[in-house]
Amino acid sequence: MTDVRVRIAPSPTGQLHLGTARTALFNYLFARHNGGTFIFRLEDTDQARSTVAFEQDIIDELHWLGIKWDEGPVVGGEAERGTFGPYRQMQRLPRYREAADRLLAEDKAYQCYCTPEELETERKRQEAAHETPRYNGRCANLTAAQRAAFDAEGRKPVVRFRIPPDRTIVFDDLVRGRVEIDTSALGGDLVIMRSDETPLYHFTVAVDDAAMAITHVIRGEDHLSNTPKHILLFEALGSTIPQFGHLPLILNPDRTKMSKRKSQTAVADYRAQGFIPEAFVNYLALLGWSTGTEEEVLSLAELIERFDLSTVNKAGATFDRERLEWLNGQWIRRLAPDDLIDRLCPFLQTELDAGRIDWLPSDQELGALLPVVQERLPTLAAIGDLIGFLLVEDVAADPALIVPKRWDGATTAAALREARGTIARVGRVSWEADEIEPPLRRLVEDRGWKAGDLFMAIRVAVTGRTATPPLFDTMVALGYERTLARLDRAIETLEAQSAPSP
RNA sequence: GCCCCCAUCGUCUAGAGGCCUAGGACACGACCCUUUCAAGGUUGAGAUCAGGGGUUCGAAUCCCCUUGGGGGCACCA
Question: Distance (Å, rounded) from C-alpha A476 to C-alpha A190?
């Protein structure tokens, strides 16, 4: 095989989309597995919808995913890499113009003066007549005089590429096998240059893939039907036709192509919600592909090692957030403590900014908590819920939650008072989980209580919630004074409530 | 409407003619562990392999048809 050259060519008309990320990943895995080159090209010819903010988002999120390109444009301080540049289509305009002129000169393309209104009218007529919408070829054979007349009218022509009327285009798709499409299904001659002289997608993609010596075009299945247009263009340009591989689409729960309308599609949103790139990449790789073994938790390096385009599935795959969360938990549990602390910090900051906590823990405090916290985090963003009660001045425990089912308010208050005494006797100096637990268990035994009842009452009194990390570790983290203070407050509340009204 | 692609548990998938009375994972149920919640372990339920025809000694696997789903048909990408 000649040196593999693949690319991801997003257009900055929106945030990095899940589907684009998956396509980027598969291209990247394919390139790395085969020792090839992975190219990043920005398709920014849709000036009306492209923005620098979107461009930055795409770059940031690709970086976040760990997908690094070998060749690519100047972006945010990074110099251009590669010798096939520029890698930004708006900087390649002269090349498209030159290619279009060549096709024009060879009569493989022609100038079309039909106005958008005329085309629209024709399209409507065809629809009404239940005909396949296609360009009718009205300008296909204009004489020089006719063209001059249109020019004199001030009409600005587009350039149309001649699609041969009755040819069958055949190609061997790397994931789908042999595909045949008749040129009559292509909608007639194809506009390749707008009247404002900017090029259109199908044209730029062929010109650039040829110029950048792309060997394998790996993209979403939504481009399958467009592939004959590209093949025809490669031929007309006298370029080598790359191999194609069309990936199955990622689907909404209703099995339509995943869209912003129906699903969360921005990679940035998943990042903000506390997914980590290890899990995200792992999940994306498993949408439409598997190793063929029962291995599922795989690092980027392992994915590269095992990736095989020929075993990619053909059918679309529904995005399943629950499975992503499970994988995220798997990967969070595998993180080294210091690493996890670093990743948690921004999420704690978010909690602080939102006013859900009153201060940030030190790295040391957070580190001490990690053993009981790490396996309880489905996402990094769950940290606030998990330990927030440690980072606020006070918690207001709901008396209804403090009182166990078997007890009433007065009993609970009395039990907590005894427990408070026992805990206080442990003392600040020997304030460790295994110093607190035994005396409390003895108390439970002496009084004939259920350990669960007392512990739950203490838990709610001290944290304000029923689901927390292990109780004794929690009290240690809270500290001696705050634990006692919260117990006192809960006891007061309960007593005030169960006292007979005056 | 026309063209193309696809079809195994709810979901992601294994399966390249006999290893399949279809395996794994997520989610779900039960149990174990256990101070709650998780995590972990065990286990259960869950797919007549869309339907129908072939081919074959034998089909989830090959062929055809039907049905269903998706995608594409722009001076968007």
Answer: 72
